[in-house]
Amino acid sequence: MSHIADAELRRLEAWMAQNVPGYRGPLTVNAFDGGQSNPTFELITPQRRYVLRRKPMGRLLDSAHAVDREFRVLSATHPAGLPTPRPLALCEDDSVIGSAFYLMEKVEGRIFRDPTLPGVAPEARPELYLAAVAALAQLHTLDPTALGLAAFGRPGNYMARQIARWTRQYRASAARKIPAMERLIEWLPQTIPAQDRTTLVHGDFKIDNLVFAPDAPRVAAILDWELSTTGEPICDLTYLLLNWVEGPIHDLPDRAAAGIPEIDVLTAEYCRRTGRDGLPRLDWFFGYNLFRLAAIVEGVVGRAREGTARDPHAAALAERPPRLAEAAWRYAQRAGAPLR
To answer: Does residue 190 sit in helix, strand or coil?
Structure first.
């Protein structure tokens, strides 16, 4: 549901009056645009703005859309100094607006939907990319146990579980056979790099999930924690850098003139901030993340075929998964996969 009905709004106002310190109405609601799987709304009062994230309506997978997990990780990381929105209240009573939801503060700032940062002067762009890396490094240096999140994710085998998850999603949605995906499904589980660190991971860390401060090269808030858990931090880093190997940044004719640092500059900054000597097997992780993205897009294509996709451009995406899979296989070959 992409709106909150009048009766739900009245119940929400009553609930906020009892559960949100300092709340004073009247309340108006705007739905945020975008493809978030958890519908997201801006709540506006004369004194303050809030953000509400709710579970979708209807039948859901058991582990999907866990807004309580999002609220839990924000409640642990915000007091630790990570730039996350301040969580305010969690409601697990479906009778209020029809599904569980939580409230957080609205963080004002700049959100860039295009990772090339249009509208920003080239000389100002490097510090924004470095700020994104700094925020990710800060996340990865938090101690989950000290934050009370030791049991936030399942122990061990993170990459094996991720490969299995996205393989299942691809199999469930694909109505065609993509040869490169089949090769990746066979090769990736057999070649998983040893995991030497387990940290909190965001799961969807990218430029458009960050709010940058209005007037400084600083991340003011990391958004959209639906996929967060504990796992392999290099998976987060290579997902952030994926546009450098396939996408708008990769396609720029002159990244230096555009003020966009190269991957080696950004990975060196990440290593400096996380105390690493280097990052072996980056090609493997780029291959995995391209495979994952191909599976996600193939899912959107499948929903468009069935008439259930929300994205009006979903049907036009059909050519993208094979291209992503071929790019993933090229990185797999750089990481040691057979040259075939």
So the answer is: helix
Instruction: List residues bridging with 271 in a β-sheet.
Output: none
Tell me the pTM. Answer: 0.92
Give the separation between CA 244 and CA 300, rounded to whole angstroms: 23
Residues 6 or more apart whose CB falls under 8 angstroms from that of 65 comprise 37, 38, 55, 56, 226
CA angle 234/203/184 to nearest 5° reads 65
- pLDDT tens per residue, range 119-175: 999 999 999 999 999 999 999 999 999 999 988 988 889 999 999 999 999 999 888
Q: For residue 205, give the nearest of 219, 188, 191, 185 by alpha carbon.
A: 219
Measured N-to-C along each axis, helices 125-140 and 263-274 cross at an angle, to the nearest 10 degrees, of 40
Cα separations in angstroms, 14 against 23, 26, 27, 54, 325: 10, 11, 11, 17, 50
Q: What are phi and psi of 181, to 5 degrees?
A: -65, -40
Cα separation, 78 vs 139, in Å, equals: 11
**Domains of the chain as residue ranges with CATH:** 6-105 (3.30.200.20), 122-334 (3.90.1200.10)
